[in-house]
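DM from R.C. (forwarded with permission)

"hey, sorry to bug you on a friday — could you get me a structure for this? deadline for the figure draft is monday and I only need the backbone to look sensible"
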Amino acid sequence: MHTICDTNPDTLKNFQEKYPSVQGVLSYPEMLKNSEINGVIIATPAPMHGDMVREALLSGKDVYVEKPLCLSEKEAGELATLAEERGRILMVGHLLWYHPVVLKLKELIDTGALGRIQYIYSNRLNLGKLRREENVLWSFAPHDISVILGLVGEEPESIQSMGGNYLHQSIADTTVTLMKFASGIRAHIFVSWLHPFKEQKLVVVGDRQMAVFNDTLPWQEKLELFPHSIEWNGNIPIANKAAGEFIEVSQDEPLRAECQHFLDCITSRQTPRTDGREGALTLKILKACQSALESGQPVVFCKPSLVAKKEYFVHETAQVDADVQIGKETKIWHFSHVLSKSIIGERCSLGQNVVVGPNVKIGNGCKIQNNVSVYDGVTLEDDVFCGPSMVFTNIINPRSHISRRAEFLPTRLKRGCTVGANATIVCGTSLGQYSFIGAGAVVTKDVPDYALMVGNPARQIGWMSRYGERLDLPLSGNQEAVCPHTGDKYRLDGEHLQIME
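My reply, with the result:
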């Protein structure tokens, strides 16, 4: 830490007594003039955020601002654009995205461990922390909105919100918000500071497993999975309850991890996990919740007629070049860009901040999660899944000062394969059909059909069924196995696996 800035002399004096080696200034503009400072953390009342972030970005500083990014949806978009134009880091303090349990939960969702997500609910309840400058929705809910949007990977198509004002006639003390997503997922957020006990719980219901993140429990009990199932006996659903299993998660203090992430972004110039665009989106949804709360009427974002008219959906913040082909029922979400001469099949989903092309071909039924760039030379066959922030390369030996566009190597992902979050696919490789690349793996050579790959460099540790279940087979030999979910039979012949039709 280089400098502490506070306009209150007494507060500044207390900080300097605690950190005697750190400089102290009373003037924010004076601090921004210091050329030795390349990054600032803004922790002030929310109405001050917008102006202070803008001043810092214009001064050439990287910025980490506590939530919310600002109070104006329009200004939030302008600040995100300003940071991009100036080549500056803009990070918003959505703390839960630096909680190891939330990151583990995101990994479980992205790898399909919970199955198809059906419902999410979040309770953030307590007695106390009463505010007069903001209601409980603005005080408690931004973290939950940010997390739900990130877990789902899409913007809600409609929002409803209701609440109660008990301590002050114009300030809500408790609210319930319902969100409906085009994918069929539903979510609700219950926040209150008039609750008899503290509860911070996030529940994700999938069709294979249910996950509970309870932040009030000891660390080893914070994340629990329940492999409950529903079976139908005639027309009667029967619940089969199963014992919960606590999931081991490496312990880290979220605020410390958040601060370290900002420092890492300053050094590496990587995009923060909660960047300006993510902050702007969260603010947009938060303001929609407030509007629904005040009016008592739902706020609708995506009208079905817009989808039907074009036979596909492109969010208003996304950009699609003129000479692009897009199939029916495909959805292209926030801040994505599809470049010229690219072809995208039917029923695809491109999450937030996805870049495709130019000259890229994507098959039917593909899902590309947030923050993925599919470069020229990459081909995705049908039903390919690309996890969030996974990376394609197109050059083996890149140099910034040397143009090597003529040296792009082709990369092909065959039908049904899955690439986990933060994995890297080195160019010139081919991923076999229904292969499964674990989160964070680095693929440097061709991958066989149905192979399960992990590590850096990626190595095969097993085989996966088309459904996504691990098969009980060695890496080589002559054996047969059955998918425990579908009953499909597979035959291993040497080092090659085939399904027995």
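R.C.: lifesaver. The chain is about 20% helix and 30% strand.
me: no worries. The CA atoms of residues 490 and 500 lie 5 Å apart.
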